[in-house]
Amino acid sequence: MSEQSFIAGGHRHGGHFAERLVHGLQQALEHSLDAEAISRQRGLLQGLDPRCKLLALLSLMISGILASQLVTLLLLFGLAVLLALLSQVSLRRLYRQAWLSVLLFSGVIAVPALFLVPGEVLFRLPLLHWGISLQGLRSAAFLLGRAETSASFALLLMLTTPWMHVLKAMRSLGVPVLLVALLGMTHRYIFVLLQTASQMFEARRSRMLAPPSGRLARQVVAASSGVLLGKAFQLSSEVHLAMVSRGYRGDIYLLHSFHTRRRDWCALLPALCVPLLILWKHA
C-alpha cells in the first residue's frame, strides 16, 4: 500500500463484531486506493509542485489558527471547499473523512465552553437552568471553525499528493531526515498492520460455524487483540529491517525531480501572504 491518511466511514452492514471489524478494515484499505486515484486526477492541486503545495496549504492552516474573526474563518473554509471542487475532490469525501470526525471530537471539547465561559447569557436550558453565553458560543464556534478549516486543508494535501511526494517535499524543504524516516516507516507499518489484522480476523471468522454471541464473542475479540498486539511488536522490527536492508535511510528518491513553474509561484505567494495579512491586521 502506498497512500494516504484517511478516516474510514461507517458501515451499513450488520453481523457480529468480528465481521464488522473485517469489513471496516477492508473498507479502510479501499479508501487508500481511492485516495491514490484522486492524486492522479487532473485537478488544480494535483498540478502544483508538491513543495509549493505543502508550503501553501501549511500557510493556510496556520492562517486558520491565527484567525480571530469568524468571517475570516468562514472565508478560509470557503476557500478549502473551492479548492476541493477544483481538484475533483467531492464534498461528500471531505464530510466523511474530515468534517464529521472533527465535529465529533472537537464538539466534545467545545460544548462545555457554551456553559463555562462567562458573559452575556442568551438563554438557559430547561430543567437544568444552565446558561449559554454569547462569549461561549463564540469560543465554541472558533474552536470548531479552526479545527474544521485546518483539517480540510490537511486532507486536501493528503488526497491530492502521493505520500512519497509529500515526504520528498518535506526533505526538500529541510525537514530532518529522522522525522521523514519515522513518518515513512510509520505509514508503511500502518498498512501492513491493517492487512495483518484483516487476514487474522477473516481467518478466525472462516473457522466458525456460527457467529459467536455474548461472552464467547468478547473472548474471541480479547484473544485476537492480544495476538494482534504481539504481531504488532514483531512487525515493527521486521518492517524497519526490511526497509533498511533495501537501502532506506530517510531520503526519498523518485523517478522524476520536482520543477517549479509560474503557476506554482502564483499559488504559493498569495497563500504565504494570508497569515501575514492576518497578523498585520491585528498588530
TrEMBL record:
Chief place where the protein resides:
membrane
This protein's source sits in the domain of life called Bacteria
Q: What's the protein's topology in the membrane?
A: Multi-pass membrane protein
Return the CDD domains for the record.
Answer: EcfT
Query: What GO biological process term is on the record, naming one?
Result: cobalt ion transport
Q: Which InterPro entries match?
A: ABC/ECF_trnsptr_transmembrane, ECF_CbiQ, ECF_transporter_component
- Example of a GO cellular component annotation carried by this entry: ATP-binding cassette (ABC) transporter complex
**Transmembrane residues, as ranges?**
54-86, 98-117, 173-194
- The yes or no answer to whether the keyword Transmembrane is present is yes
Q: Which UniProt keywords apply?
A: Cell membrane, Membrane, Transmembrane, Transmembrane helix
> Where found, per UniProt?
Cell membrane
| Record NCBIfam families | ECF_T_CbiQ
Q: Which family does it belong to?
A: Belongs to the CbiQ family.
This chain belongs to the protein called Cobalt/nickel transport system permease protein
Which organism is this protein's natural source? Aquitalea magnusonii
